Amino acid sequence: MDLNTIWFLLIAILFIGYFFLEGFDFGVGILMPFVSEDDTDRRLVINSIGPYWDGNEVWLITAGGAMFAAFPHWYATLFSGFYLPLLLILLALILRAVGFEFRSKLAAQGWRRTADQFIFWGSLLPAVLWGVAFANIVRGVPIGEDMYYTGGFFNLLNPYALLGGAVSLLIFTLHGAVFLSLRTSGSVRDRAHKIAQSIWLPSLAVMVVFAGFGYVQTDLHTRLGVIPGTLPLLAACSYIAIAVFLKKKQDGWAFASTSLTIVFGAAVIFEGMFPRVMLSSTDPAYHLTIYNASSSPLTLRVMLIVALFFVPIVLGYQGWSYYVFRKRLTRESIPNH
């Protein structure tokens, strides 16, 4: 395995980790208006992800930095061609952070309602736009011989990409609902559990349509590993397991199942792309690959040494924070102010 392949795998792991961890953050933010009856409920929902959300975003920052250093042409083409969607994601994440950090700084109900809107829209927009972005990446976008994106914004709003946005929105919302069932108690937990059960079947229907559409729009089905279909099958099995564990009210196993669904589903994208990193709909000869888009071998080697040192530290810290804040939250744990 060469350095280019290793760095492709590392970036894939970083994005998959981001979607798994930030996915339930997005879902919780989206569901906050629907599982909360009063301000105490809303604060309970926010506290459920309070120790985690900013640490989860580190995975995205690290993935972007690794892409910039290891595959600069991939980074340049992606961030120039997808400039507006990525800018909207960035602005949404900023507003979301403002909502989390400053909501309780003022007791005025008007300000808290505004902060709640920041959290809701700052969760919903990225949940949709990440699906749109990655659906376009695997479908292919207009890229010329010089590795420049030659399309416009509306090229990205094709039916397949919009369907991908619907899939990511639904699966992240389901992931967040199951997480709330695991982390909270009382009426919030009951409402979250009911929502998770109610959106499981509609989400399945949309994903089946998306998979069938992808069979026509992409070549992923021809490139899925030594044993074709292994990862899609694992994703399907884990998704079915969600319904089983929800029915039994086994929240931990249900959350493990939504997590595996996201992990296997995202892994399908990267497995189907390899060794390509961005597909050109103009001409297959213009695809960006792990070789024509990469940095020098020396850069990849030095970065790998740095990553081997720092990544375990980050993983250790995050694992410790999840362990410390592992208990369920109750309304009684929320201060009366």
Low-confidence stretches: none
Distance between the termini: 57 Å
Tell me which oligomeric state these chains represent: single chain
Largest sheet: 2 strands, antiparallel
Mean residue pLDDT: 91
* Succession of helices and strands: HHHHHHHHHHEEH
Structure description:
With 337 residues, the chain is mainly α. The chain has one domain. The chain is built from 11 helices and 2 strands; from the N terminus they run H-H-H-H-H-H-H-H-H-H-E-E-H. The protein has a two-stranded antiparallel sheet. The protein is globular, with a radius of gyration of 20 Å. The model has no long low-confidence stretch (mean pLDDT 91).
Summarize the entry for a quick read.
The protein has 337 residues and is mostly helical. The protein has helices at 3-35, 39-49, 53-70, 72-81, 83-102, 109-139, 159-183, 186-217, 230-247, 251-273, 297-324; strands at 276-278, 288-289.
Q: What are the main properties of this structure?
A:
74% helix; single chain; two-stranded antiparallel sheet
Question: What topology does this entry show?
Answer:
Blueprint: H1 3-35, H2 39-49, H3 53-70, H4 72-81, H5 83-102, H6 109-139, H7 159-183, H8 186-217, H9 230-247, H10 251-273, E1 276-278, E2 288-289, H11 297-324
Antiparallel strand pairs: 1-2
